[in-house]
Amino acid sequence: MKRTDPQFKIRLPEDLKDRLEALAAKEQRSVSAEIVARLQRTLDEDDARAGAPRPEDVAALLGDDEGVRGALEEMGTLARRMEAMTALLRSKASEQVLKDEKKAAKKRR
């Protein structure tokens, strides 16, 4: 994130602001960077879900076979787990980039 990126004002409930500040401190990044990382993660998760058909839609196309429905539900569960793992990995990668940038900035001082 650059200082030249657009700014956006937002009102937050006090308790949410406090939580974000605590999480940002734990991750050793600014509140702004914490919000951006979390927002990016949820948008990535939404994009991943939008690209996959829902198990109930596929089951409706294939008929009401219990075996097919069970297999599709299990596939949906596995897909959601994979999405969550992918989002976590992206988040950790973003955190590492921020930590590396922070270290580089300290060295430049």
From TrEMBL:
Domain of life: Bacteria
Gene Ontology biological process terms, A to Z: regulation of DNA-templated transcription
InterPro entries linked: Arc_DNA-bd_dom, Arc_rbn_hlx_hlx, Ribbon_hlx_hlx
Keyword Cell inner membrane: no
UniProt KW DNA-binding keyword: yes
Residue ranges of domain Arc-like DNA binding in the record: 3-44
Name of protein: Arc family DNA-binding protein
Organism: Luteibacter yeojuensis
